[in-house]
Design goal:
The complex is a heterodimer of chains A (116) and B (117).
Chain A: E1 3-6, E2 10-14, E3 19-21, E4 23-26, E5 31-38, E6 44-50, E7 56-58, E8 64-68, E9 73-78, E10 87-95, E11 105-106, E12 110-115
Parallel strand pairs in A: 2-12
Antiparallel strand pairs in A: 1-4, 3-9, 5-6, 5-10, 7-8, 8-9, 10-11, 10-12
Chain B: E1 5-7, E2 10-13, E3 19-24, E4 31-37, E5 43-50, E6 53-56, E7 65-68, E8 75-79, E9 88-95, E10 107-108, E11 112-116
Parallel strand pairs in B: 2-11
Antiparallel strand pairs in B: 1-3, 3-8, 4-5, 4-9, 5-6, 7-8, 9-10, 9-11
Classes of the chains: A mainly beta (116), B mainly beta (117).
Chain lengths: 116, 117
Amino acid sequence: AQSVTQLDSHVSVSEGTPVLLRCNYSSSYSPSLFWYVQHPNKGLQLLLKYTSAATLVKGINGFEAEFKKSETSFHLTKPSAHMSDAAEYFCVVSDLRGGSARQLTFGSGTQLTVLP
Amino acid sequence: EAGVTQFPSHSVIEKGQTVTLRCDPISGHDNLYWYRRVMGKEIKFLLHFVKESKQDESGMPNNRFLAERTGGTYSTLKVQPAELEDSGVYFCASSQERGLAGSYEQYFGPGTRLTVT
């Protein structure tokens, strides 16, 4: 079984300050981990993904995340928030049993507010 | 390349009625998934098609939900009869199977917001 816990339902930062969205996961197999973002009235967009290569993953729009197996964490960070980053962010896990495509398990989401 | 499209974007129906949601995956993607987000809850997996076959339907809530994927192209999700608790956003995603060494990133559509009154 696999699960994801997003530790904060809401995060509020000022424009230009760092962003940290926290995620812990549980998986019985080698996991693939993703961060998706959903802007208002838009679909889910992939920000970045970890699939057992480099543990520090760089994504779009300046976001990155670090896979820490010992802590079972996959926190999302960005050095400097922009107003356009305001959205809901989802941490997602999927296992790679047999290397085949599988269902995604979503966290409950973190709503990021960026203050001017 | 066109992304995943879903129709309709919104649907408002009365309890007991039938609604059919449609998803067109990215061309060439064999894998098609349905997910649902009920108000205030996590996005939950419903089912997974590989081409026209149901690979995993463990997330389907009950037999009022019927999913099909004719000819391995577009998919429909029918809810009959709809209940109040079926309200939420229904997402479709598709991916291209690339094997052990590859990525199977899922591309999501914009979702269909279903309201049952």
